[in-house]
Amino acid sequence: MKPSPTPFQSNRPLVVHGVKVPIKEEEVSSVIWQALQSGNFEAKEAVIVRDLLVPGDRVLELGTGLGVITSVMANTPDVLIWSFDANPNIVALARRVLEANDIRNVEVDQGIFTSGDPDTVTFFIRRDFWMSSLIEEQGLYESTIELDTENLDFFVSTHGINVLVMDIEGAEKSLLAGASLTGVDRIFLELHDHLYGLSGVRSIFNVLSELGFSYEPRTSVGPCVLFQRDDGSVRPYND
């Protein structure tokens, strides 16, 4: 049975998936606050990432959010994590969460990545921060910011990244389409078929297949999917 989060008090933060979340109700939307209180916030992701990493992994996380999943991953011994979110307000909240949990093996910063040459893009910030994106047509937004992008493969190469974790509200389709991902052996991402349809899902699978990745059915849950390098070995039966 999933443990219930601790009700918020001024001097006692929520605890979600074993992570202290010192965030006040007025700092997030009502939808996100309810998800935090119920323990449903990023629940599928939390289950998957507990078994995703092994000691020594070097992780690039795109879409830090509140840092809850970041914190869960950071509990793996000898793991280093670089985490980026485009929304500066969310970056500030995530840093608060990491500090509250005394996590020291994570670097969190504002940033956004592309698989092409560096560029400047417009990012649309929405009250439900998990709907903030590069897509104006996605719905009403509160504000916009201009961000200079970084090249994904360059960062992966220079930091020795071998695990890529993404929840970037539809941008995964274009990001993966032009990437080489040399050195990466696992990719965990959330699919957003409501933004690019099943054809977009098929495109992501095709691109990753061409790069040597296979869908991991034993770990994936719904839109939260894991891909890993396929070494061609036959796996033991697991009922």
TrEMBL record:
This is Methyltransferase, FkbM family. Residues 82-215 form the Methyltransferase FkbM domain. Keywords: Methyltransferase, Transferase. Pfam families: Methyltransf_21. InterPro entries: FkbM_mtfrase (IPR006342), SAM-dependent_MTases_sf (IPR029063). The lineage of its organism: Bacteria, Pseudomonadati, Pseudomonadota, Alphaproteobacteria, Rhodobacterales. GO terms for molecular function: methyltransferase activity. CDD domains: AdoMet_MTases. NCBIfam families: fkbM_fam (TIGR01444). One of its GO terms (biological process) is methylation.
